[in-house]
Design goal:
The complex is a heterotrimer of chains A (417), B (292) and C (349). By secondary structure, chain A is an alpha/beta fold. Chain A has helices at 2-32, 59-78, 98-111, 123-135, 148-152, 171-179, 199-212, 231-240, 251-264, 282-287, 310-321, 330-349, 354-361, and strands at 46-52, 87-93, 116-118, 140-142, 158-160, 188-194, 216-223, 244-248, 270-273, 296-299, 366-368, 371-373, 386-391, 394-399. In chain A, the strands form four sheets. Chain A has a five-stranded parallel β-sheet with strand order 2-1-3-4-5, with helices on both faces. Chain A has a four-stranded parallel β-sheet with strand order 7-6-8-9, with helices on both faces. The longest helix of chain B has 31 residues, at 2-32. The chains are: A alpha/beta (417), B mainly alpha (292), C mainly alpha (349).
Chain lengths: 417, 292, 349
């Protein structure tokens, strides 16, 4: 009995000690904080916090987002900062975990008392993080959380920095198909959909519109994320012989589907992949450059775009990170656009606090490298994406006509040429 | 019907690779009574090694197998000596699970840091080619993977049945005390046995990298499949593991082809539960009290 | 004897209850909520993995089950007071326990190895089901929980207090178990299951009971977590990393002890959150976890608290010889010479 008593005593002491240490740490760091308050003099730096996935499952895109944020901060500081205040980005890692992302935004907002926050990488992390921002009335501009659930929250402080909700990236393909004369349109369609918050809604959106227009669905299959072997699925696609194949995909499954179709020697007349086919470097590497011709996808930013600040962004990115315009990940462009919005609000209103940002962005159009952006009350942007197609080994925008650099090629050329 | 047979073909071809992985796992259990939860991670590690050899030297993964096998053999022996041997006998069965789990995590962490988390795959020139036999499609890669798995398994069988080391291993599996009485150095057998298990993972890993895209986290899926396979085959029985691998793989592929790909993942769990309910020792496991 | 330990328990409770009144900032309360979650889960895991010696590697499945059960109950509902989900927690716990019961029955009939295999596989099955059963779980699109209508200023408090209650409940349960026949049965099973069966311990019944209670509690924590996050996805609600954390914390603090898991959770969870926030740049945390795990298993196999206890015992023994005292057998693998175990009703361990 003596032993167990002593044991418990030790345990309690340890727990209490731990709690005391934590509390001391809490007080110490908050008193050490040199956090700028929102109403500081114009010389105090503008601290913008964001939680990014630098490790974990979303890490590669997270790093692209970081490059975009850092690039914008460097560019705007070279021009004198925002309203005379130097921009400091405080970027922290959430290890692609929703638990950590909640803690990160709590820490950024309440402990480090940053002036503004930008959003994390994916819809999966955006939803919990946006709730934290909402509680403390911070504007939440986020370049990468555009799934339907994000907007279903109906938060007035949230702004998705892309031309349209992700689910609409299929719409531009449907728009184009339905704009073709009736005899040139596909009559039958197959849908292969990744079970994922982005990919599946995109394909389903297209399917609804196609079925309403009389394009018959001859095959539809949702497959789980771990699917590695597409032979069974694609064999059924081949058996159904559709005119158009609509793939609601991310990257890996898009590559696998194309490779399998090549092996099965089947080439549909029209082919759309919501993701995967829009990566300028990876796609030809993974499926073979001779197999890309004619495949379509959707995108927001593309090299050579004439949108506001795009040329400067391209040049600056290449200078800072090397490579060519084709190696620039869209996520970097989207992150850059997020910063541009802050600059624009400051320039237009002369103020840069959260309330001003929220009211300003809900009105009018705002120019960015992604085009002119505007938002509805729930944070969903009201624009549209570009339809892009592989032609001669390059990705070019082909629709709508206003931003097109080439005419769409159809039917899709056969594999290997 | 066509889809069904295509599924069976696919299952058998894939089963070869899983048989190779599972044979190492069940061997380790047979010798040391340790469930190696790091087997999946070792497979993935070998896949990354092959990937690196392929991208840096252009070495075909099949040719890289001897290299990765030797490397992983050394790793396996090292792991056993460093982490498993020091465990006290009483705690061994409980702690060895956690130790091998920790090793799996360590491998995953190191792989993430070294290669990042994007999916990789080994894209040889023949990666997309396939043959068609009587209307059924057989991919070149899968076929050679199957052949190679058979060769490797054949080597393993030869090793176990025709060499002194193999005899020592089998003796230890059957009865460790008697084996020791007869002069078999149990410590050596354990270390080399673990190394052998790791080596089979290496061979399988090079093949795996050709067939599927992988990321450091892929080992979780793998290990759950492998565990079901070895339980079905009977913990400790290499032959059982091979047969079980083909059964599980084929059932999974049939479910994917006929019902839906989403449910094929569940197949191995269903099989596991059925085995535990009907015949807990698996197909060829022994019915020792407390052994299963 | 009883009084001092009750006093210590009382100090702990008073400390926990009064923490928020210290005017702590939101981010710190947020951290505490997560620490308490892991402390509770580790204590729950301890019942099965620590006392019974059956290392379950699939507890996270029940975490997810609890999360999704709550999401299902409150689908598309608007909350009046915001306390409704908390009132439903016992039901969630029961659901978890009921699902755990047959799993335990099937997998605990045999040895610990098979048990671990079944629990890991079960984890992946639950994750697959969470993805595939769209109508129930929302699949990969995730499931939304109603937003708690708590004021921003006191948002974390209800969660904090609920977690304190859960932790105290779990610790109380552990304490009661340690002093009861069930507890002794568990320990005897861990020492030598066949012998335990031989002397008449209801081996299967006790194991299954421990498992069901353990996963029931884990399910309740999962439900609170889901409510706190407001949105859950299959790969996060059913995540092997949660199990790893629980196991590591229990091992660090000391399996089979009352305070061990709590100590492990305090150290590891706050450490991990702080480190990720301050340093985060590399995937090191997985490596750190793994290395820490290996170091603990090899050097401190019984965890911090039992090792401290051993040192004290050794020091005291070297000072004078002591009359044998009845000690709670922490780890039967290392019996100390002077200890004997008093049992309540028949049968020596």
């Amino acid at each position: 009995m003596q032993q167990s008593n002593r044991l418990w005593r030790k345990g309690v002491v340890a727990v209490i000690a731990g709690a005391v240490v934590l509390t001391l740490g809490a007080c110490a760091s908050s008193s050490n904080d040199a956090g700028a308050t929102a109403s500081a003099s114009s010389k105090a730096p503008l601290v913008i916090g964001a939680s990014i996935s630098l490790t974990g499952d979303f890490a590669d895109s997270g790093k692209a987002v970081k490059r975009g944020y850092d690039l914008w901060a460097a560019e705007v500081n070279a021009k004198g900062g925002v309203l005379g205040r130097k921009v400091t980005m405080k970027l922290v890692d959430d290890a692609s975990s929703p638990t950590q992302v909640v803690s990160n935004y709590q820490n950024l907002i309440n402990r480090d008392k940053v002036d503004l926050v930008f959003g994390p990488f994916s819809s999966l992390l955006t939803v919990p993080a946006s709730q934290v921002a909402k509680r403390y009335s911070y504007a939440f501009l986020e370049p990468a959380g555009g799934g339907p659930k994000v907007f279903a929250q109906k938060l007035d402080n949230l702004f998705f920095v892309q031309p349209a909700p992700v689910v609409k990236s299929g719409d531009v393909f449907a728009d184009w198909i339905l704009s073709l004369p009736a005899d040139k349109r596909p009559k039958t369609a197959a849908y292969t959909e990744l079970d994922d918050p982005f990919a599946q809604p995109i394909a389903e959106n297209i399917r609804t519109r196609f079925e309403a227009a009389g394009i018959k669905t001859v095959y539809q299959q949702v497959y789980p994320a771990e699917t590695q072997d597409f032979s069974a699925i694609m064999a059924k696609v081949v058996a159904a012989n559709p005119d158009v194949l609509v793939g609601g995909t991310q990257n890996e499954d898009a590559y696998a589907q194309v490779k399998t179709l090549v092996q099965l020697k089947f080439s549909p007349k029209f082919m759309f992949l919501s993701n995967g086919a829009n990566s300028p470097l990876e796609f030809p590497t993974k499926v073979g450059p001779q197999n890309t011709a004619g495949i379509m996808s959707a995108g927001d930013w593309f090299p050579g775009s004439t949108a506001a600040g795009s040329a400067g962004f391209e040049a600056a990115y290449i200078k800072a990170n090397g490579g060519t315009a084709d190696t620039i990940d869209n996520s970097s462009a989207e992150a850059f656009a997020t910063g541009q919005l802050i600059e624009a609000v400051a320039a237009k209103t002369g103020k840069i606090d959260n309330a001003t940002i929220i009211t300003s962005l809900h009105q009018g159009e705002w120019p960015t490298v992604l085009g002119n952006l505007s938002w509805g009350a729930d944070g969903a942007p009201s624009g549209s994406f570009n339809l892009i197609q592989w032609q001669n080994g390059k990705l070019v925008p082909v629709f709508p006509a206003a931003t097109a650099k080439a005419t769409p090629v159809y039917p899709k050329p056969n594999w290997g040429g | 019907m066509h889809a069904l047979i295509q599924g069976v073909i696919l299952g058998i071809l894939t089963g070869g690779v899983y048989a190779l992985m599972a044979s190492g796992q069940t061997l380790i259990f047979g010798i040391m009574k340790v469930v190696n939860l790091a087997q999946g991670a070792m497979v993935i590690m070998a896949a990354y090694l092959s990937y690196q050899l392929f991208t840096t030297f252009g070495m075909d993964p099949f040719l890289a197998i001897p290299i990765t096998t030797l490397l992983m053999f050394g790793l396996g022996v090292g792991v056993e000596l460093l982490f498993l041997r020091p465990l006290r006998r009483e705690d061994k069965s409980e702690l060895s699970l956690l130790v091998t789990f920790a090793i799996a995590l360590l491998i995953e962490g190191v792989l993430s840091v070294t290669w990042g988390t994007t999916y990789r795959s080994i894209n040889t020139t023949y990666a997309n080619s396939s043959w068609t036999l009587w209307g059924y499609q057989i991919t070149v890669v899968r076929f050679w993977a199957f052949v190679l798995s058979l060769v490797a398994l054949g080597l393993l069988f030869w090793l176990l049945n025709r060499t002194r080391f193999g005899r020592a291993v089998r003796a230890t599996v059957q009865n460790p005390e008697s084996a020791r009485l007869l002069g078999v150095e149990a410590q050596w057998v354990s270390a080399l046995g673990f190394g052998l298990g790791a080596a089979t993972a290496a061979a399988a890993g090079s093949i795996y990298g050709l067939l599927y895209p992988f990321t450091p986290g892929s080992h979780y899926d793998l290990i759950s499949r492998l565990l079901s396979i070895v339980v079905l085959g009977g913990l400790g029985s290499v032959g059982g593991a091979v047969i079980a691998a083909v059964i599980v793989s084929t059932s999974s592929a049939i479910v994917a082809a006929t019902i839906s790909p989403a449910w094929s993942e569940m197949t191995f769990f269903v099989i596991l539960i059925l085995v535990l309910l009907i015949r807990p020792q698996g197909l060829f496991g022994s019915v020792n009290r407390g052994a299963i | 004897m009883r009084l001092p330990s009750a006093l210590r328990g009382g100090v702990f409770v008073a400390l926990l209850v009064s923490m928020p009144m210290l005017g702590l900032q939101h981010w710190f309360l947020n951290l505490l909520v997560f620490v308490l979650m892991y402390a509770t889960m580790s204590s729950a895991w301890n019942l099965v993995g620590g006392f019974a010696g059956y290392p379950s590697l699939g507890h996270a499945a029940f975490f997810g089950i609890g999360a999704y059960t709550l999401a299902l109950f409150f689908k598309d509902q608007v909350l009046a007071t915001g306390y409704e989900p908390f009132l439903l927690l016992p039901v969630v716990g029961l659901v978890g326990a009921l699902i755990g019961w047959p799993i335990a029955l099937i997998s605990m009939r045999t040895r610990a190895d098979v048990f671990a295999i079944v629990t890991i596989t079960f984890l992946f099955v639950v994750q697959t089901l969470a993805f595939n059963l769209h109508d129930l779980t929302g699949g990969s699109q995730g499931a939304a929980l109603p937003i708690p209508p708590f004021a921003a200023g006191q948002y974390e408090l209800p969660f904090y207090y609920v977690m304190v209650a859960l932790l105290l409940f779990t610790m109380g349960l552990t304490f009661a178990t340690m002093r009861s026949k069930v507890g002794l049965s568990l320990v005897s099973i861990r020492a030598d299951e066949d012998k335990a069966r031989g002397v008449g311990v209801r081996v299967i019944g006790v194991k299954v009971l421990a498992f069901s209670v353990s996963v029931g509690i884990t399910a309740m924590v999962g439900a609170v977590w889901a409510y706190y996050e407001s949105f859950i996805y299959p790969q996060f609600a059913v995540d092997p990393l949660i199990t790893i954390a629980m196991v590591l914390m229990t091992f660090l603090g000391g399996r089979g002890t009352l305070w061990g898991p709590v100590l492990g959770a305090v150290i590891l969870e706050s450490g991990q959150q702080v480190l990720t926030y301050q340093l985060g740049a590399v995937q090191l945390y997985l490596i750190v976890y793994a290395l820490l795990f290996l170091v603990i298993i090899l050097l401190l196999p019984r965890g911090i608290l039992p090792t401290i206890e051993d040192r004290l015992r050794q020091r005291r023994r070297s000072r004078r010889t002591e009359a044998p005292a009845a000690v709670w057998p922490e780890d039967p693998a290392i019996p100390s010479k002077a200890d004997t175990v008093t049992t309540r009703g028949g049968g020596a361990a």
